[in-house]
Amino acid sequence: MIKHTPISILTTERLILRQWQADDFATFAQMNADPKVMQYFPKLLSEQTSDFIAHKCRQLIHDKGWGFWAVSLREGSENKGNFIGMVGLNEIHADMPFAPGVEIGWRLHKAYWRNGYAFEAAQAALKFAFTVLDLDEIVAFTAVINKPSQQLMQRLGMRNTQQDFNHPMLNPHHALAKHVLYKISKDDWR
Ligand SMILES: CC(C)(COP(=O)(O)OP(=O)(O)OC[C@H]1O[C@@H](n2cnc3c(N)ncnc32)[C@H](O)[C@@H]1OP(=O)(O)O)[C@@H](O)C(=O)NCCC(=O)NCCS
Question: In the chain, is it the N or the C terminus that has fewer CB atoms within a 10 Å radius of its CB?
């Protein structure tokens, strides 16, 4: 059984991973309609679908205390308080061949890429997973062609299990169907 906690806020040197707020939704919708951000997703999302996902993230954080957190910049940064995307943890959907378990995931607004923000936020999420939730293992998966995300997994110390799989929600012939599966154990993380 995976632990529930009080609503958790994670703070890093430059970022806050927190509960979603109503004024994050517009930027999130902008990201989800951006072909560059969504390059490795099957389709762009409408504002309605984007809002639905943000509500769902908010509800899960409300219910469990953790999840895909909204990420914003901390005091002192030029764009203080700005919502820059989402990073966090999610219970794997039962349809996945490696379920049950917890995944780590990320999606940031492109204006903030290549500043080390995803790495910094993901490190905090891993620390939370292994210390507060006391989980034994975290997985990450993405389309084989999504190299930036795999580079990030590697930088976090995750290893490629070599157990590629076809995403159950996609037609096996779709260019994004084939996925890699990365893992990190609590021991490796230590
Ligand atoms: C993947 C993503 C979250 C990375 O965010 P970011 O804040 O730019 O990443 P960071 O600056 O923290 O980079 C950390 C590491 O990730 C890797 N990385 C990030 N962007 C990369 C790119 N465009 N090409 C290659 N490697 C990249 C690098 O290893 C980098 O370490 P380095 O800077 O020391 O080389 C961002 O590109 C994104 O939101 N992409 C679209 C959404 C997405 O594909 N999500 C994953 C779906 S599974």
Answer: N
Determine whether the shortest distance from the Cβ of 151 to ligand 1 is under 6 A. yes
Q: Residue 23 above 90 pLDDT?
A: yes
Q: Look up residue 24 and give its DSSP letter.
A: G
Which atom of ligand 1 is found nearest the CA of 154? Answer: 29
- Are 109 and 30 in contact by the 8 Å Cβ rule? The answer is yes
Of 106, 150, 167, the one to substitute when testing ligand 1's pocket (max ligand atoms within 8 A of C-beta) is: 106
Q: Ligand 1, atom 22: nearest CA belongs to which residue?
A: 148
pLDDT digits (tens, 9 = 90+) for 105-149: 999 999 999 999 999 999 999 999 999 999 999 999 999 999 999
Which tokens in the block code for residue 43? 């389709």
Could you tell me the pTM of the whole model? Answer: 0.97
Tokens of 180: 């890699």
Rounded CA-CA distance 72/85 in Å is 7
